[in-house]
């Protein structure tokens, strides 16, 4: 073998290459060179035609270099068998000069190159380059064909395909097979560009398949899978489809969920209906959120409206204002709680989301005067948009519950601030008017509160009862008058709001530990 290998280049298209020759040394030498030059290649060796044929039937061989004269099965018979199952495998013939007539026959069978022994490195590079060029051209052509076929199917599933599109698709075996439609959706935008190819590869193990992005529903892909009736029974095919989604697609994208249609006798004839079935199954993910694969035969059409209607907004608002979490929680449950009691039918997720978002917006507007949110509009929009984006009912329920809790908190904060101001105002009033006939009932009436609630609020804000604070203010002012005036104790008692001087003396002594007269004496004034 000529060892001149100047100009060799590494890299290029990855190829699964089979080398066939009964000369073991020749095969191993070629394999070693190719593995060194093209480390990304998969190189398989065979030493006779029969072994090579078994390899081709069992492995995804893309290119073959084969000798002509071999035991068990010669190169021409091997090439003939290859061509009986595939026109895509690229074949180069390895031969001596004396076998040129055989080589001409092989070339008529679709051999793309002829390598004369002894083989040079440049011969090898040329053949490998030719393989890669043709395989890449095939790949591009397949891609174009798939793109064109996908465009035809897109029109058909959406009911836009006419006779021309149907005639084109009839040329493809998939259109004539029994089959089903799968619509899959991912929550990971970065995975969307790769899903069609990944899905087509995954489902091809169950039969012929094509996958493409759904241009009507952003983020979704459509997979059409053919049922090879001679290969699988219907239950086997359905089970295989489910298994391949779960084993091949979900590990690559755990957020994926797929809706699977029923099986039609001819995929082309049933495609629009099958697509709608798959969409319906997929949209049940809103309720069946832990099921990655949902079959159409296990779901029912959606209800257009909730049987019980939505909760009363006014009642909800009153519950929020009262801080009644039990009633608020019950309203949220009734808003989203319909669970398919009507023969297993659920409310359309779009209706459910819109109903929740509208309820949220209306209730928020009613609560606006009681909510101290500086950017009220943005606050409502944020919660409303989250409701409309919810992908599952539990996500929607969590969002609405979070909004309701925020309503209660904001209202409570405003009420607490307002109540604190009221109590401060009441304290100022007591300090100014303590000498008057003031009672808890009168103070509560002045601030428009029920006496019991006002008493509770007063103690909550001051730490003391209303009567206790009023007593302290009166006694404090009595002490001031005892120190600064010569008025009689009984007169001072009446001046600070006590009608009974004896009661005043008892309360004053309890607070100061001194009688009014003794208090005055210690302050430097006489007794009266």
Structure description:
With 528 residues, the chain is of the alpha/beta class. It folds into 4 domains: 16-136, Rossmann fold (3-Layer(aba) Sandwich); 172-298, 2-Layer Sandwich (Alpha-Beta Plaits), CATH 3.30.70.270; 313-414; 434-522, Homeodomain-like (Arc Repressor Mutant, subunit A, Orthogonal Bundle). Helices cover 56% and strands 10% of the residues. The chain is built from 21 helices and 10 strands. The chain has helices at residues 24-37, 49-58, 75-85, 100-108, 121-157, 163-170, 173-176, 195-204, 234-249, 267-283, 313-322, 325-336, 349-367, 376-389, 393-433, 440-446, 451-462, 466-484, 489-495, 501-512, 516-522, and strands at 16-20, 42-46, 63-67, 90-95, 113-116, 179-185, 209-213, 220-226, 257-260, 293-295. The strands form 2 sheets. It has a 5-stranded parallel β-sheet with strand order 2-1-3-4-5, with helices on both faces. Strands 7-8-6-9-10 form a 5-stranded mixed β-sheet, sandwiched between helices. Helix 12 (325-336) runs antiparallel to helix 15 (393-433). It is elongated, with a radius of gyration of 44 Å.
CATH-defined fold name of the largest domain? Alpha-Beta Plaits
The helix tally amounts to 21
Low-confidence blocks of residues: 1-11
Could you give me the name of the CATH homologous superfamily of the largest domain?
Reverse transcriptase/Diguanylate cyclase domain
Task: Give the total of domains.
Answer: 4
Distance between the termini: 138 Å
Features:
alpha/beta, Alpha-Beta Plaits, 5-stranded mixed β-sheet, 10 strands, 4 domains, disordered N terminus, 10% strand, 5-stranded parallel β-sheet, 21 helices, 56% helix, Rossmann fold, 528 residues
